[in-house]
Design a protein that fits this description.
By secondary structure, the chain is mainly alpha-helical. The chain contains twelve helices and no strands. It has one domain. It is globular, with a radius of gyration of 21 Å.
Length: about 325
């Protein structure tokens, strides 16, 4: 086995940190500069017309709460194996977010969080992160389905036959999963996974669900308030049904964090186009959501990445 000297190891860690942080900044810059759908002159005109200090602070507060609830979720879940402070949870969540910006669907976050713990905890940390993200996805699916049904009832985007096929396929997948839960592949099975979930104390699950719900309501309503700021005057339920549908469909597509606004923006253009909202407004709002909820946390997370020190084995 090839051994690496301590100095060489430290050098490689520094290089990795610089690559992660440098890459994060580069991708943010390139997406903002090279996106031909962003007309900054139009944005400046609208901003000058509608901006207010209170409005900006309110949106920043929602961004803070969005990430704060995620940090509380992580602190709560990790408490099932090890107690960590709020400051430590913040460091782990933001650093992992920065590390995961280059990976599909934020997969790098799993490895990023695991690096803060001893190797003996690695599998447990990955599992807890899966639970942390999983409950968020479940809520996105639930709200998204209801949003799609409401939106479809209003605008008849999907035929009744298509809805029946989707629900039938979903039911089939659930039934197949139930009957195959005992089958083991390389030591893993659905049944074992369920047992591991049940091994986590109920109060931890309950708090995790409550925080995930709070987080979902925060970022979906931040989207809603941004539309109001851009003078989009639509009924609350119509606008929220479109927002929940966009999050549901966009989250089902494989993407990278640094392309998050492009994916959500393209899906949003379709839905809000039906509502008669100008494309440039939709794209700008998707971009602002990305800046508020991905770029700002990544900038802070970059500091924690640079300060990162490997845990002992």
């Amino acid at each position: 086995m090839i051994s690496i000297s301590h100095k060489a190891k430290q050098f490689l860690i520094v290089v990795a940190k610089l690559l992660i942080v440098g890459g994060a900044f580069y991708f943010v810059y390139s997406q903002l500069v090279n996106n031909d759908k962003l007309d900054w002159q139009l944005f400046v005109e609208k901003f000058k017309k509608n901006w207010s200090v209170a409005g900006i602070l309110f949106l920043l507060l929602l961004s803070f709460l969005n990430r704060f609830f995620e940090i509380l979720k992580w602190q709560n879940l990790v408490s099932s194996i090890k107690l960590i402070s709020l400051a430590e949870a913040t460091k782990q969540v933001l650093a992992a977010l920065t590390a995961g910006i280059f990976t599909p669907n934020g997969v790098g976050e799993y490895a990023g969080k695991a690096l803060f713990y001893e190797k003996s905890f690695a599998k447990k940390i990955v599992f807890l992160n899966l639970i942390c993200n999983g409950i968020q996805m479940v809520l996105t699916v639930i709200f998204g389905i209801f949003g799609l049904l409401y939106f479809n009832a209003e605008f008849n985007v999907i035929t009744t036959k298509t809805i029946a096929v989707i629900f039938s396929l979903t039911l089939i997948v659930i039934l197949i999963s139930f009957f195959l839960k005992g089958i083991t592949i390389k030591g893993y099975s659905l049944e074992k996974f369920v047992h591991k979930i049940n091994a986590i104390p109920k109060p931890v699950h309950q708090k995790n669900t409550a925080l995930a719900l709070a987080r979902y309501l925060v970022f979906s309503h931040q989207y809603y308030f941004l539309f109001l700021a851009f003078d989009v005057d639509l009924p609350y339920l119509t606008l929220m049904s479109a927002i929940t549908s966009v999050y549901f469909l966009a989250s089902s597509l494989p993407t990278f964090q640094f392309l998050d606004f492009a994916v959500k923006g393209s899906v949003a253009v379709y839905f809000f186009g039906i509502l008669g909202v100008n494309e440039w407004i939709v794209v700008f709002i998707a971009t602002l959501m990305w800046l508020f909820n991905v770029v700002l946390p990544v900038l802070i997370g970059s500091y924690f990445v640079l300060k990162f020190k490997t845990s002992k084995s």
